[in-house]
Design goal:
CATH class of the largest domain: Alpha Beta
Bound molecules: 6-O-phosphono-beta-D-fructofuranose
Shape: elongated
Low-confidence stretches: none
Largest sheet: 7 strands, mixed
Oligomer: single chain
Radius of gyration: 22 Å
CATH topology of the largest domain: Rossmann fold
Number of domains: 2
Order of helices and strands: EHEHHEHEHEHEHEHEHHEHEEHH
Length: 353
Amino acid sequence: MKRIGVLTSGGDAPGMNAAIRAVVRTGLSRNISTIGFRRGYNGLLMQSASNQEDFLVLTSREVSGTVHRGGTFLMTARCLAFLEKENQIKAVNNLNSLGIEGLVCIGGDGTYHGAASLKELGFPVIGIPGTIDNDMSYTDYSIGFDTALDTAIENIDRIRDTCGSHERGSLVTVMGRNCGEIALSTALACGAEVVMVPEIPWSLEETAERVKWAAMNGKSSLIMIFAEGAVNSLTSDVAAICAGDERLQGINPAHLSSSSIAQMIEILSGHEVRATVLGYTQRGGNPSAKDRILAGRMGNYAVQLLAEGIHGVAVGVHGEELIHVPIEEAMNSRIDPQKARDMKDLIETMAGV
Ligand code: F6P
């Protein structure tokens, strides 16, 4: 094997640069050169005015000074055109014309779908999990999750201070798409009183009861962690709740925002509740030590596998050990709802409400 490619796709995640660097430098140590494709699968389609916009040769110096940087210097995107077979075939032709013999795809579930389509066309691919969501259960951790948690925790600790001073509740919305991993781990680490995730049905009425009870028991600050996807597991009749109080008339039950959820909990519990959306702060910033180390190990392992002729797989980690599984298996591995329920029980026990 003489030349490989690497790309980052989907939402960026802290540690992606460290993974690219590991791919490039492991390759060079085995006399394999690496081409970096820009903007995920868009780069493979080579539709820009100049080739330099789509790909570049990654020398050792090109990846210098990147191990500690957040984001991805190759840039990333979600490429809808790549869902079309003719574009997948075009990508394989482009890869072949550049003499590329294997492709490392760093990203989440959507990235793995793209990689699986190339595998189906017979092209050697390897997936590296790079997503803050940690939503694929075949691996204990994805690159970026640990940093996103640190960022969320740091911000929520600040929110806790001001909540306590004002004797308020705070509903803090965290990312995670359809997965509650960020919310559950953040809630446990912050000592949150309430957590709402997509994997577990929840109601506004029960939440408000818990808030009331906590306030009655002398809790001066109350942190409620709300996973962005938890809006889909809400069981309450929102229209009926809104109809019952004229202050809630402006809420559209079909498009619930974090502040409207906070407002309903406030009215049902009689306790002041404010909303904060952490948003993209969780995706930026320098990667944590854990993410840098994971990215370095996974990037190195991916190239070793390719060089040994093993491909069509995604790398992951179980405990301290690096593993690989068929990419189709990796992209269909959802988080076990029982694990989410056990975490929620633990969070509620620790909250001492
Ligand atoms: O998958 C990573 C993620 O940050 C999710 O947590 C979030 O739902 C989504 O990406 C946001 O995507 P976008 O960058 O397109 O707004």
